[in-house]
Amino acid sequence: MKRFHIHVAVDDLASNIGFYSGMFGQQPSVVKDDYAKWMLDDPRINFAISSRGLKAGVDHLGFQVDSDDELMQLREQVGKADIAARDQLDAACCYASSNKYWTTDPQGIAWETFHTLGDIPTFGADAKKVSEVAGSAVASACCAPAKAAQPAASCCGPAKAAEPAGACCAPAKAVQPADAKRSACC
Fold it and tell me: CB count, 10 Å around CB of 165?
């Protein structure tokens, strides 16, 4: 079963924990110095906030799945739809280890689809494995967007990405001819 995921960058973690705890009618299931997460069942949402020096607002959206099989099904679905995606296996980000992939919508909003493997004691660490997908490599550094430029797509297929300076949790913006898009990992 899928769980919708929303990650919001905030300026003041404590006041936002108070606000969202009141909004959701429950305290967060995870609280760290720079991060909090609510695992809600009704509606089924993984809602996370962090204060890591990023611009306040929606950081990324996504889906959390219960198994690697379900993750692979969704990954194949976006592949069949010819949506560029970047895989990240054994990612260490947001106090969890997970397998995941990233896509970016036409507005430049990052979408993370992931299967959580377990908890880790830090907000992030370098990824153990990086997979190359659709001609673009994923760099690793947790939850800190970085910029990456991509060449224009040609008549022969999608653009090949330059090595991104990379991020986990919030794919970096990549410059493309018609629109700005985000790419990388979390």
Answer: 15
What pLDDT does 131 receive?
35
Residue ranges in the chain whose pLDDT is less than 50: 126-186
Indicate the pairing of strand 57-65 with strand 110-119. parallel
Give me the amino acid identity at 55: K
Domains of the chain plus CATH, in order, are 1-136 (3.10.180.10)
Report d(CA 26, CA 44) in Å as an integer.
14
Which positions ≥6 away from 46 have C-beta within 8 Å? 3, 4, 5, 6, 37, 38, 39, 40, 64
How many angstroms separate the CA atoms of 186 and 35, rounded? 14
Omega of the bond leading into 164 within 30 degrees of 0 (cis): no
Name the nearest CA neighbour of 103 among 138, 67, 153.
Answer: 138
Q: Are 71 and 113 in contact (CB under 8 A)?
A: yes
